[in-house]
Design brief:
The chain has about 375 residues and is of the alpha/beta class. It has three domains: about 120 residues, Response regulator (Rossmann fold), CATH 3.40.50; about 170 residues, Orthogonal Bundle (Hypothetical protein af1432); about 60 residues, Molybdopterin biosynthesis moea protein, domain 2, CATH 3.90.105. The protein is about 55% helix and about 10% strand. A five-stranded parallel sheet has the order 2-1-3-4-5, sandwiched between helices. The chain has a three-stranded antiparallel sheet with strand order 6-10-7. The protein is elongated.
């Protein structure tokens, strides 16, 4: 079994030396003499399975420090060392949920080892549970995304393209929780399942809408947000989708607040990615699409628009598609159709811009056996 990392925090160097001396052969031991240094170590060298802190330290107490640890490293198990006179304060900290266990000074080394081993077991349980939740969440998102493809290949294709752009923008802007932006982009069109097919076609072709159609179209993000809000840990994604059509200056939909930087950063990125996809389909030229967006700057976060310009002009993910022709047997996940796909008799099967996935490949292979498909297929890969 590999050793787990333990961090001890105490303002008395001799106590830290004793920990290192007695525990180095069982655990990977790190030490810090104050809370500030300890937080920096956690940020740079984490994750740590267990953090053990003295209660009484200058500047920042052990209770306050471990509360900070909970914020920046929620899976790390937190323990406290206290003097006998501080037992009441330590007990309160345990009851508040910030501390897994507290030990009194001087602490018997065997008791300390058993406590650390119990903390490591707890850490393993927490990380395993989080891994299961993460895989479950990814599965749910994938199922919802593929269900969207059953409703409309065009809408699914738009989601795929927007996801690629939003992902690149999130990386370029170095935002926290980029996974929320990518997931929101994948599911940004899920509310379209309630829209009539004729309206979906008009939206995808950027055709004028009447008043009723306009109201229906602008409310589909709210439908998506209501659906996604029911999935655990997806509250942030739902909020991003809610404001995906919100203008940076406060216009757009939903009406009213928030405005500017108060709009979730993910929503601001998604707005840029969505409109870029629309204008790129209109002009078939990244520079022309960006120029059109620059003409309406009030709608966009300037930082997100600058990031898009960087990706286009400097050579980022958005601006380097690779075009090729492949046989049906050579199709792979994440390829995008570069032209409409037809049967041998001229029947339209899939529209240009649709991202290929495994279920779709299997359906196309089965369809080709009975009806035939025109080959080679024109596809595009984004580097």
């Amino acid at each position: 079994m590999s050793k787990e990392k333990i961090l001890f925090v105490d303002d008395e160097p001799n106590i830290l030396d004793a920990f290192r001396r007695h525990l180095y052969n069982r655990f990977i031991v790190h030490t810090a003499q104050n809370a500030k240094d300890a937080l920096e170590i956690i940020r740079k060298e984490g994750p740590f399975a267990v953090v053990v802190s003295d209660l009484r330290m200058p500047v920042m107490s052990g209770v306050e420090f471990l509360a900070r640890v909970k914020d920046i490293a929620p899976t790390t198990v937190r323990m406290m060392l206290t003097g006998h006179a501080d037992v009441t304060a330590a007990s309160e900290a345990v009851n508040e949920g910030n501390i897994f266990r507290f030990l009194t000074k001087p602490c018997n080394i065997n008791l300390l080892i058993k406590s650390l081993e119990a903390g490591i077991e707890q850490y393993a349980l927490i990380t395993a549970e989080n891994e299961i939740l993460e895989k479950t969440l990814k599965g749910v998102v994938q199922v919802l995304s593929e269900m969207l493809g059953l409703v409309s290949n065009e809408v699914m294709g738009r989601s795929a393209r927007v996801k690629e752009t939003a992902s690149s923008l999130a990386v370029e802007m170095k935002i926290e929780k980029p996974w929320e932006v990518v997931t929101a982009a994948m599911l940004s069109q899920i509310g379209c399942i309630v829209l009539p097919e004729t309206l979906l076609l008009k939206i995808n072709r950027n055709e004028p809408l009447d008043e009723i159609e306009e109201r229906m179209a602008r409310e589909h993000p709210l439908t998506a947000a209501r659906l996604i809000m029911n999935i655990p840990r997806m509250e942030g994604v739902a909020r991003i989708i809610t404001y995906q059509n919100k203008d940076f200056d406060g216009g757009g939909y939903p009406e009213g607040d928030p405005t500017g930087k108060e709009i979730p950063i993910g929503s601001r990125i998604l707005r840029v990615a969505l409109d870029y996809d629309t204008f790129l389909n209109d002009f078939d030229d990244p520079v022309a699409a960006l120029k059109e967006m620059r003409a309406n700057q009030r709608a966009y976060d300037p930082d997100a628009l600058t990031a898009l310009e960087t990706l286009i002009t400097v050579g980022g993910t958005v601006s380097k598609p690779v075009h090729m022709e492949v046989k049906l047997s050579e199709l792979t996940d994440r390829m995008l159709l570069d032209e409409d796909l037809y049967t041998l008799k001229g029947q339209l099967l899939l529209k240009k811009g649709l991202e290929i996935n495994r279920p779709m490949i299997e359906r196309l292979i089965n369809f080709s056996l009975t009806h035939g498909i025109r080959e080679p297929l024109a596809v595009m890969l984004r580097q």
